[in-house]
Amino acid sequence: MSGRFDFALALGDDALIAAQRLAEWTTRAPEMEEDIALANIALDQLGAARLLLSYAGELEAAGRDEDALAFLRDDREFRNCLLVELPNGDFAVTMAKLLFLAAYQLPLYTALAGCADERLAAIGAKARKESAYHLDHASTWVRRLGDGTEESHRRMQAAVDQVWPYVHELFAPDPAAPVDPATLRADFDARVAAVLDEATLTRPESGWAPAGGRDGVHTEHLSYLLAEMQVLHRAHPGARW
Amino acid sequence: MLGQVEAAEEALRRAAERGRPDGPAPGDDLQAYFDEVIAADQKIEPRDWMPEAYRKTLIRQIAQHAHSEIIGMQPEGNWISRAPSLKRKAILLAKVQDEAGHGLYLYAAAETLGITRDELVELLLAGRQKYSSIFNYPTLSWADVGAIGWLVDGAAIVNQVPLCRCSYGPYARAMIRVCKEESFHQRQGYEILHTLSHGTPAQKAMAQDAIDRWWYPSLAMFGPPDGDSTHSAQSMAWKIKRFSNDELRQRFVDMCVQQAEILGLTLPDPDLRWNEDRQAYDYTQPDYDELMRVIKGDGPCNRERMTHRRRAHADGAWVREAAAAYAAKRAAERERVAA
């Protein structure tokens, strides 16, 4: 990715797929307060996705609005990172994913808020406030689970080990993008290290760094997610809802 | 409807400004004082003495109401992942989130009566307390999301608006907040149906099919006919309930007939017609045998709804235990620092 269209599309797809996964928790969370919190975060992500996809559609100038981009592209055309499409797993996996996503989105949106593109700057200014809340929420749970019971510690460490390899893709250098993702890595590492440390968790030493999301080469999970998300929209071509 | 909620809120404020009858002096008859507060349309508050049966009835009713909000997230939650546009997805997600919030307000109101939320949740999971029978019906198409908003939330509002004036203060105040958000949801449901009924032929058919399936279950939400209602007379005397099941059901029918006309959709009752003498619509009563079967556990989704709730609760146990263990560690640390 490098142009503004590709950049807005990739960020919009990250937020959209993250929202879809988080919303799967509705009615399933460990406590009622968490049901509300996860729906809240899903709504924030969905709101950011709508702004970014609408803007991407305008930049493309091919007549595609947010719904055309969300519902009428196949998995090979989606540009989200692999991290967000991974299944929810148990609550620890979801919190590991959310921690890493928020620790990436916060510095990203913060940098975006100062970029030259006025629309992207406005979206960044709005979304960074929400990301700060998401990061706070995920950090709190990672600490609770990591430093809670023996079982929760085991599950939280397993979740970090499972998800960690997928973060590297987020920071692939792209000097031509409105914000070069490589410049966000140090901030991300510092924030995550502090949380894992307090949570008595360790960062895995795996050298495996799966990637491909930004090029539309996804895991096997995405096309199932899209099949469900798009089924109704695709069944009624041209209908208004 | 919203006007009545606002009027109830205003009445609540004015009653508070008037002040309450002087509290009972030591040795006074507590029952007489309770009756005096009820007669003066003042609110009973958690600190007040109340008859044990009043407390029990309220716990049962508020808990059932809270459970209904929580179980009621499932049929609509079923369509979040498949909502046909991003805007509709956002609206539905926000609505289901509101329902969880209503559940929390209502559990908090019940807790003022001397029971804990954990105890109430256990009673629900053990099948010893009920939730609204309506949530045992399946959501089979997107239009069901609209029908639930229009009919189910509509029936809930007709039922709940009078509760904004109920004699128990915490419940009345919770209902004022709940009703304001519910009437917003009802409008959104109506708007979904309106869009569908003015869309493609397939969309219109989808909307009509949803109304055909949700109409009678919604009428049954008002409970058994007045002759068979077990708790009504006492609840009316205590000013917990203000209108009978049949009065509220009639009000709901009269409201829906007009709205269905604007939608260009029909209600599935061939005998529905205006009665000039009664100045109300005649309609066919719902099948109360079916209602009793659903309440007893044999509706289409009773087992799935309860299994889903129990599984979420069981799957989350290790998370709640971790949160408790973490909190205990932090509390112990603070004590060490303080010592």
Automatic annotation (TrEMBL), chain A:
- The leader peptide range reads none
Q: Which Pfam family is an annotated match for this chain, by its short name?
A: PaaA_PaaC
User: What are its GO cellular component terms?
Assistant: cytosol
Family annotation (SUPFAM superfamilies): Ferritin-like
Q: Which InterPro entries match?
A: Aromatic_CoA_ox/epox, Ferritin-like, Ferritin-like_SF, PaaA_PaaC, PaaC
What processes does the entry annotate via GO biological process terms? phenylacetate catabolic process
Name of the protein in question: Ring-1,2-phenylacetyl-CoA epoxidase subunit PaaC
